[in-house]
Design a protein that fits this description.
The complex is a heterodimer of chains A (47) and B (356). Chain A has no helices and three strands. Chain A has strands at residues 19-24, 30-34, 40-42. Chain A starts with 18 loop residues before the first strand and ends in a 5-residue tail after the last strand. Chain B has a single domain, classed as Beta Barrel (Porin). Chain B has helices spanning 2-21, 31-35; strands spanning 51-62, 64-66, 72-74, 82-94, 99-113, 117-122, 125-138, 141-148, 156-166, 179-182, 188-197, 205-216, 219-230, 234-244, 247-258, 261-274, 277-289, 292-295, 298-301, 305-317, 322-335, 337-338, 341-351. The radius of gyration of chain B is 26 Å and the shape is elongated. Classes of the chains: A mainly beta (47), B mainly beta (356).
C-alpha cells in the first residue's frame, strides 16, 4: 500500500452528510436519508 | 520416546533460528543496484539515505453502493452516480536500513448530485430542486515512522509503523453557494443547492500498522494490518439556509462528532516477471465504525461500514530513478458503503541525495 492517507472511502473524515429525509422506525429510532450515500441509513441514538 | 523428544527439540530449534540465521546482516550496495532492486528482493522500508517521492492520482467512478444488508445498489439508476479525483503525495526517507520516515497528504475533489426533485403546487407553479454536495481540499498531513527487522532482506521481513494525522487541513465547510434559475414564467423556477465541504479530520488521528513479506523465488506474499483511531472528539459546523424572496440567508450551527475507528487489511501475491516488471493481486478489507455524530443535540451512532475489494496491479521500473505503479480496485462485497471502481496511477522518484 503506497498511500495511507484519506481516500474516497471516507467523506470529509467523519460521518457528516446532509440529510434529505428523516423518519422513525418501529422501535422509535430515528433514521436519516443521507445525500452522498444515495441510500437511507439507520442510526441508533446513543443518548 | 527419547528420539521423539530430540526430534521435537530439533524442529523447534529450526523453526526459531532458521529464519534469523538464513538472513545475514545488512550490507551496503552501490546506488544503481539499490535503486534497481526488484520488488521480490526489496525490504519493507527504504535503504539508508534513500529519498523517495510518490505522486499518485486516484480516479473513482461511484456507480454502485452496498446497503445495510449488503445488497448492491446501482446509483446511476437514481441519477446519483459521480466521480472522485484524489491526488496523493508522499515523501519518504531512509534514516537507516531499518528506520524510515514519511510524510503524506492528499487533495480530494468530488461532487455528488442528488436526484432532482420537482414540487408542483398548481398548474402554474413549479419548483425544481437540484442539490450538489461538493467536497474539495487538502487532506491532513500524515507523519509516519516505520521500523523493520535489522537484517538484510532475503525472503522474510516484518515491519511496524506508527503515524499521526495532524489536523492541518481546513475541515469546516465553506458557506453554501446556492443559486436560483428563473424562467420567463414568474412562479416556475429552479433552486440549485450547492454545499461546499472540505477535506480533513478536524482532530488528530493516530495510526498503527504492521506488515509482513515473504519471497519464494519470483513469487512474494505481502500483508499489512492498519488500525486508525481519533485522539479525541471534534467539533464542526453545519450550514443551513432560509430563502426569502428568492434570496438566501445562510447560518450555521456547531455540532460534535467522534470519528470512526478504521481497520484496513491488505494481502497481496506478487510475481516478478522480469527485473523491471512485477504484477500483483491484492485483496483489501476495510472496516469502519464506533464513531458518532451529533444531530440536534443528540448523538447518533455512525453506521458500521465494510468493504472487500480485489486490486490487480503492476509495477514497471522505467529507469533507476523512476517507477510506475498502476492499480485497479474492484469492490466485491460490503455494507453501508459506496462501492466505486477505482484506478490509482503512481509515479515514484528515487535517489540517494547524500551518497556518491
Amino acid at each position: 500500500m503506497i498511500f495511507m492517507s484519506q481516500s474516497f472511502r471516507e467523506y470529509n473524515g467523519f460521518y457528516e452528510d446532509y440529510v434529505n429525509c428523516i423518519g422513525e422506525d418501529e422501535g422509535g429510532n430515528m433514521w436519516f436519508g443521507l445525500y452522498s450515500k444515495g441510500l437511507v441509513k439507520y442510526t441508533v441514538p446513543l443518548e | 520416546m527419547k528420539s521423539k523428544i530430540v526430534l521435537a527439540m530439533l524442529m523447534f530449534f529450526l523453526i526459531c533460528f532458521l529464519p534469523a540465521n538464513s538472513q545475514t546482516d545488512s550490507k551496503t550496495g552501490d546506488n544503481y543496484t539499490l535503486l534497481t532492486m526488484p520488488y521480490n528482493k526489496r525490504p519493507l522500508t527504504l535503504y539508508k539515505g534513500q529519498f523517495q517521492v510518490n505522486a499518485g492520482y486516484e480516479f473513482a467512478v461511484r456507480i454502485h453502493s452496498f446497503d445495510s444488508d449488503g445488497n448492491l445498489k446501482v446509483l446511476k439508476d437514481n441519477g446519483t452516480a459521480s466521480v472522485f479525483h484524489n491526488f496523493c503525495l508522499k515523501i519518504k526517507f531512509g534514516i537507516t536500513d531499518f528506520l524510515e520516515f514519511a510524510a503524506e497528504t492528499n487533495y480530494l475533489k468530488k461532487g455528488i448530485r442528488s436526484v432532482t426533485m420537482q414540487y408542483l403546487s398548481s398548474s402554474t407553479e413549479s419548483i425544481t430542486v437540484n442539490t450538489v454536495n461538493e467536497t474539495r481540499g487538502l487532506g491532513d498531513l500524515l507523519l509516519i515512522t516505520s521500523l523493520r527487522l535489522p537484517i538484510s532482506y532475503k525472503w522474510f521481513d516484518f515491519g511496524i509503523k506508527g503515524g499521526l494525522f495532524l489536523p492541518t487541513a481546513k475541515y469546516k465547510p465553506s458557506r453554501p453557494t446556492h443559486t436560483i434559475t428563473e424562467t420567463t414564467v414568474p412562479n416556475i423556477f429552479e433552486i440549485n443547492y450547492h454545499f461546499n465541504n472540505t477535506n480533513g479530520f478536524g482532530v488528530p488521528v493516530y495510526l498503527l500498522s504492521s506488515a509482513v513479506k515473504f519471497t519464494l523465488s519470483k513469487f512474494s506474499l505481502e500483508s499489512d494490518f492498519t488500525f486508525r483511531k481519533p485522539v479525541k472528539e471534534g467539533e464542526n459546523i453545519r450550514w443551513d439556509q432560509v430563502m426569502t424572496n428568492k434570496t438566501f440567508t445562510y447560518f450555521n450551527q456547531p455540532y460534535k462528532y467522534l470519528l470512526n475507528r478504521v481497520i484496513d487489511i491488505n494481502a497481496s501475491i506478487h510475481f516478478q516477471a522480469t527485473g523491471w516488471f512485477n504484477i500483483q493481486l491484492n485483496s483489501n478489507y476495510y472496516r469502519s465504525g464506533g464513531g458518532w455524530t451529533e444531530y440536534w443535540g443528540d448523538k447518533y451512532r455512525n453506521p458500521d461500514e465494510q468493504l472487500f475489494s480485489l486490486e490487480p496491479g503492476f509495477e514497471i521500473r522505467m529507469s533507476p530513478a523512476f517507477t510506475v505503479y498502476e492499480f485497479a480496485s474492484i469492490p466485491l462485497s460490503g455494507k453501508n458503503i459506496d462501492a466505486p471502481f477505482c484506478m490509482l496511477f503512481t509515479v515514484t522518484y528515487n535517489l540517494f541525495p547524500f551518497k556518491k
